[in-house]
Records
---
Amino acid sequence: MNVSCNDRSAINLIAPCLRVLLGQGDVPKLIRYEESAPARKDAFTLPPFEDGPPQQIVRLIAESLRSVSSPLEVVVVPGCGTFHVADPPRRGRVAGKVAVVTGAAQGIGLEIAQNLASAGATVALADINADGARQAARELCEAHGQGRAAGLAMDVTDDASVQDAFDEVVRTFGGLDVLIANAGVLKAQSVKTLPVKDFDFVTAVNYRGYFLCVQKAAPIMAAGRMARAEYTSDIIQINSKSGLVGSNRNAAYAGGKFGGIGLTQSFALELIEDGIKVNSICPGNFLNSPLWSDPENGLFSQYLRSGKVPGAKTVEDVRKKYEQMVPMKRGCTVEDLMKAVFYLIEQKYETGQALPVTGGQVMLH
Ligand SMILES: NC(=O)c1ccc[n+]([C@@H]2O[C@H](COP(=O)([O-])OP(=O)(O)OC[C@H]3O[C@@H](n4cnc5c(N)ncnc54)[C@H](O)[C@@H]3O)[C@@H](O)[C@H]2O)c1
């Protein structure tokens, strides 16, 4: 498919390509796009290019930049716009990477975003709760420095919303190296009574939402690979142990999560040619998270009220029952999850896998 110089596909190709071509070693730059910027003497102007296949455009840009010896701060692409170049953070386990985390306004997504920022990543927090995502991003900027995070509106079930959010990521940071597809919802009930609209809602977020995010992110990540053959990037889906074994009275959730692993395996087979590794993490229950521990609506309170755990008289009894189900006798924590996230990013020889983090509760066959 041809890329036209004056549409958004050009920005989504040129910015990630510049990030990688101008980067030092394997650390890409940060790029901020501006449609019309005031002329600057130190700007480097690329020759105008014709509409054409992405590989051809990337080749032309690489050839034009070959003659440049000093670091560039501003690159102008006639007919397309201005690309401002900046250095990313240098310290940390994922220093220099740009990560997009979906469902990052609260819960596990927020904690992943916080941990990635602490480890040197620049982070885009995307959520249907745009205000929550923006507030969380502001706090990350206060903690780690201006420009280290951005909050974005994204409804993962909506094609246009997902595209707009990834376009904004490219205009703000120049692309992405890591997508954490975390947004997820749960409505548990018997198959005999679950309203079809609830089944559709859970499936739309957990299954369709993952597909849409990968569909919009993959071409941007692939542009980096066109620029440099060694460049790799990562898609990590936050799945669940319910993606590996069935979940009683929770079919919509488990079905969508099982489907997510099918998507991961299929994306992995296709996208490895673009240097994109695709893996899922399947955590056990986060028993300390509000989902479980909230005194009013947490699952411990709900299960106590509904008598789901026979003989349980207190919330503590319900909690103990769930801890007893784990060979390691405790719930999953974000620290456990982050070890898996860092492993998947750092390793160079695995794709299409579903990595359990369940304290031994679920084992692979
Ligand atoms: N909490 C657990 O015990 C547990 C266990 C295993 C896996 N998980 C998985 O971890 C992920 C996060 O779970 P959590 O417990 O943090 O949930 P949470 O409800 O605390 O947070 C989910 C976030 O996703 C956002 N979101 C919901 N619908 C969205 C949409 N359409 N578009 C964009 N954002 C949307 C919400 O606004 C919220 O910020 C989910 O995928 C879940 O399945 C959770």
Note: The first helix runs from residue 8 to 22.
---
Amino acid sequence: MLLPADFFSRFCVTQYIDTAPGHEQGIDRISHVNRRKDHRKSNLEKRFSSPDADRPSKSGGGDADQLLSAPASSKLRRQGIALSYTWCMGGTTFFLFLVEVVTGVLLMFYYRPTLEHAYNDILNLRDVTTLGIMRELHRWGAHAMVIAVWLHMYRVFLTGSYKPPREFNWVVGTLLLVFTLLLSFTGYLLPWDQLAIWAITVGSNMARATPGVGVEGPGASLLVLNGVPLVTSYSDAKFALLSGRSVGEMTLNRFYVLHCVAIPLAVSLLIMIHFWRVRKDGGISGPM
Ligand code: HEM
């Protein structure tokens, strides 16, 4: 069976290399740069030794060709994709994100984010609608994605894969973690039942204590312009989150847009950067 991590590596990587355990963590930037130079050199050799090498390129130059050939030139340590090493958790998180996107889009055909319809639409999805199973898949998939992303981060920490040259990708990863949690948080309100409304009320109250931008947070009282406080309960982080002072219809609308459009787009962009960096940093790290 093709596991997600396996799929990820086959999709992105064309060449495996074997190295002795313990080698990877010692790879520094210089050897990384040298390896990439070697790739470029072998790409050029391949291009000029091919039968149609003398044919003029449509792109008109080597740069575009190199850009296109770059994705096929990455190398990967065989141990790096071993299930016992990655736990397959990065690939699983990605797979679950795709499941969430597909089931979420299907749910959008049935769900209306208004006070009048939201709760009943959810009940109908459970009891009446043919594709109602999508809601269960979406809900369980969301829980699984949160667990998978934590396990992935834990694995990266345990294997020391946050160390140079992968520290930038660790930062991209932490953003992905925050956005994954925000996806969960914003989705929680959409069923518009008592649990959802009070959970978001409690959760958003914490935003009042955000340093600098929450009305009760440290530093907020210092932000004063001509004697007028800049951060008040009508202009702080909680107000921005709820689009009001308490949970209401505008909150539902705001969370719906964040949950279905803004955050998924941000996560997609970050995942692209994350995967690009995995390749740039020399593929998945190997065992320490
Ligand atoms: C939506 C969330 C995420 C997705 C889809 C994702 C996906 C992936 C995938 C597929 C890999 C390849 C290796 C593997 O499968 O383990 C990877 C590597 C990596 N990820 Fe993530 N990731 C996510 C979140 C995070 C988080 C929260 C962190 C840490 C804060 C992180 C840090 C890293 C690092 C440093 C690597 C390189 C690891 C290595 O080379 O061994 N990622 N990620």
Note: The chain has one domain: 4-20+72-280.
